[in-house]
Amino acid sequence: MAGHDIPLPLYLSTIGTPIEATRAAFREHCGKEFDFDVFWPTAKKRFYALTELQLCVKAGVVELLDVLDAAQLPRAIATSSRHEDVQHHLAAGGLLGRFQTIVADGDYSRGKPHPEPYLKAAERLGVEPESCVALEDSYHGVRAASGAGMMTIMVPDLFPATAEMKRRCVCIAEDLHAVCALIEIVGYGASPSPPAAC
Predict the structure, then answer these.
(1) In this predicted structure, what is the pLDDT of residue 194?
(2) Mean pLDDT in each 10-residue stretch from start to end of the chain (198 residues)?
(3) Which distant-in-sequence residues (6+ apart) come within 8 Å of 30 by Cβ?
(4) Helix, strand, coil proportions of the chain in percent (round to 5)?
């Protein structure tokens, strides 16, 4: 945009971070004169246009939510995105109403990789953080969830599981179908104090 090269590693480094951290990263790369407030809405508009045609629900997510429903496990979304963006994506995937609470930008003062978003999600669910299972696909998210004391499972997408991620997680799952299998094997639904999913 405007003659600036936006390399993929720069974009990837901002995934899971609050908007202000993203703004700072882009200005550090492109210079203080970079008009992030023009760039970001334009980029988001293009993304929305693409998602209207190409947005796909991650394989296994509906099945996972069905397993959580059957086990009567509460669940939350803890994200760096804005509430309106989360609602848009959930609606596009037919997933509105399937989460007890959503913790998004504006609900906390310190975003990922700080644990505050996850701690807020656990608080809203009325569950202790150490009783929560957190599913993450980004490095910042894994750091936030594990820092909150949650049982963290990484489901790699754009980011491979590094040695650090393996140390921070209770396991690395190939996909959400594997997470479903884990939940069913452990049998959380029969537990007197089942964990929550964030």
Answers:
(1) 42
(2) 68 77 84 82 71 70 94 94 91 94 96 96 97 95 97 94 97 95 70 48
(3) 4, 6
(4) 50, 10, 40
Contact 121, 76 (CB under 8 A): yes
Taking the model in full, what pTM does it have?
A: 0.75
Q: How far apart are CA 14 and CA 110, in angstroms?
A: 15
Residue 1 Cα distances to 35, 37, 51, 101, 182, angstroms: 10, 12, 20, 36, 44
DSSP code, position 148:
T
CB atoms within 10 A of CB 125: 23
CB neighbours of residue 177 within 10 Å = 15
Instruction: Provide the token pair at 93.
Output: 């995937």
Name the packing angle between helices 83-92 and 36-54 (round to 10°): 20
Strand order in the sheet with 171-172: 171-172, 151-154, 132-136, 196-197
Rg (CA), the chain: 17
